[in-house]
């Protein structure tokens, strides 16, 4: 994209403004904000606004330095107002424990699964308890139950199917009530 003469002139103006007024503008913004990083942001935003209004600044009407300082002051004021509008952050209260999460749903789910486990065959229940409640591997469960690992795999497959059927039946009963 080719540069237009106006854009080139505006960039030259901003470079000149920064060279001539940058230090004093930064010092002024630092005094207003009390923070060097925030002051640098204010100077950058001031120069960006100067670039946007380059035609007005190049016209020669009024003091450029006065315009820059006024823009910087207005930016600092706007930032202070924006911070004042935000609600104050509250520190964590140390003397009170955090609110516990409601775990009633997990309790109900556990009760439903336990009830469903009572309705499957003892062999299926044993495999599911070993694998899912005690967290054992297939080999560990096979050793504990005294059956080959293939039998544990097969029983767990059919046990899960039976458990799903019991739970589906229970869900159907609840939905018909």
Which H/E pattern describes the elements? HHHHHHHH
Question: Which residues form runs of ≥5 with pLDDT under 50?
Answer: 1-5
Mean pLDDT: 84
Described by strand count, sense and barrel closure, the largest sheet is: none
Structural class by helix and strand composition: mainly alpha
Query: Strand-residue fraction?
Result: under 5%
Radius of gyration: 37 Å
* Number of DSSP E strands: 0
Helix content: over 70%
Give the distance, in angstroms, between the N- and C-terminal Cα atoms. 72 Å
| Overall 3D form | rod-shaped
Q: Count of DSSP helices?
A: 8
Describe the structure.
- This protein is an all-alpha fold and 177 residues long.
- The chain has eight helices and no strands.
- The N terminus is likely disordered.
In short:
The protein is mainly α. It has helices at residues 5-33, 36-52, 54-58, 64-85, 104-117, 122-133, 138-145, 149-176.
Summary tags:
mainly alpha; 177 residues; rod-shaped; disordered N terminus
List the helices and strands and how they pair.
Elements: H1 5-33, H2 36-52, H3 54-58, H4 64-85, H5 104-117, H6 122-133, H7 138-145, H8 149-176
Helix pairs in contact: 1-2, 1-4, 2-4, 6-7, 6-8, 7-8
């Amino acid at each position: 994209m080719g540069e237009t003469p106006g854009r080139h002139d505006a960039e030259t103006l901003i470079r000149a403004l920064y060279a001539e007024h940058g230090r004093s503008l930064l010092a002024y913004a630092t005094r207003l904000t009390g923070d060097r990083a925030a002051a640098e942001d204010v100077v950058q935003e001031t120069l960006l606004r100067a670039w946007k209004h380059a035609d007005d600044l190049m016209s020669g009407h009024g003091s450029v330095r006065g315009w820059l300082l006024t823009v910087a002051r207005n930016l600092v004021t706007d930032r202070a107002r924006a911070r004042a509008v935000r609600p104050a952050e509250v520190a964590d209260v140390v003397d009170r424990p955090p609110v516990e999460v409601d775990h009633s749903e997990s309790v109900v789910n556990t009760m439903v699964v336990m009830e469903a486990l009572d309705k499957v065959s003892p062999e299926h229940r044993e495999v599911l308890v070993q694998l899912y409640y005690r967290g054992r591997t297939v080999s560990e469960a096979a050793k504990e139950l005294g059956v080959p690992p293939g039998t544990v795999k097969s029983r767990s497959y059919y046990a899960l199917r039976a458990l799903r059927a019991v739970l589906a039946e229970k869900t159907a009963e609840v939905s018909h009530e």
